[in-house]
Write a structure and sequence with these properties.
By secondary structure, this protein is an alpha/beta fold. The strands form 3 sheets. The protein has a 6-stranded mixed sheet with strand order 1-2-10-9-8-11, with helices on both faces. The longest helix has 21 residues, at 317-337. It folds into 2 domains: 11-114 and 181-337, no CATH class; 118-177, no CATH class. It has helices spanning 28-38, 44-62, 76-80, 90-108, 111-114, 131-135, 149-161, 205-219, 254-262, 264-281, 296-304, 317-337; strands spanning 11-15, 18-25, 118-122, 128-129, 138-140, 165-167, 173-177, 186-191, 224-234, 237-246, 309-311. Strand 9 and strand 10 form a beta hairpin.
Amino acid sequence: MLAVSKAPIIHTHSYKKQRFQYIPFGSPTAYHDFVEKQCKSLFMGNQQTLEVIIKNAQTRIVKSSDWYGNPPPTSMKDLEAHRYFGKMELLDVIAPKIQKELDRYTELVEDELLKRPQLSANSKGLGVFSFDRAMMGLYKIPFTKGSSELERFHHQLKIELGKDKATTVKNTHIYFENTLASKPTLTLTLLAGANANIQGDSLYYVGIAVALLTEYLESCHIGVAIDVLLGTSFGVHAIVSVIRVKRFEDPLDVNQLLVLGSDPRYFRYNGFKGLIALADYCGLNIPNGLGKIDDTIPKAYMEVTPDALLFNQSYSIDHAVKEVSRILLEYTKKTKVL
């Protein structure tokens, strides 16, 4: 029997004088599937807005506009099929600056906060048996001449089973100490995209900074989950898709994070389609200009998810570095409270 996919759930809240609606998606794939399906049956007004977006994209391609970042796309296919972050080399550019902040933070925080778990051994049978440790004191159990027939039989049986050996090493079981099982996890939330007046290349930094920060925190055995917010605000409405790009237990897919969180070529075409699909699903007609990105979106969302930390939009390397430092300090405060 085929599994029936559940319809995305709309969560509705009031935020100041606006009606805030958000839809969580468990993965980028679930989000992409939703957008493609919804865009096939849009209300007339939203369908017309999508056609305007497509026409504007075609015009910008002809003009080789850098609005989508550099290098500019050369065809609509470059926009429609874009699923791979094209500026991976920026990781090498930004990493040294962010690493300075990480090194400084490591020196400042309490040792216990970021102490890596260490291997330890015990004689209580707790953990995993270490044959390598046992080998250090391995010896054969001697056979005494005065043994009975039954004892000789048992000894011969041990030889055949390979159990005629013992070890002088007592601590043969390995386990991790200082695992800090109560150490808080961290959910990072970032708002994707930018308004029309921001240059395309300026969108690259926030996702890269979050990727480097995540790798650092997980090297310290701090579980990290990442949500990308893709939304807009218009009139009395604020709407946002909340896309889980990394679960606590999963390794980081850097490309998925950077495409959804930091790629102007993705955001300013497929991301726009996502905003139209989201508005349509919420029963709204989105304006041709697609609304705007403002503080309402992250503030309204963070109000209903207080345990997460928001990585603010960063349109320069220096701003991204400052956000890394701020998140680390916020996490430290949160840890001390707990």
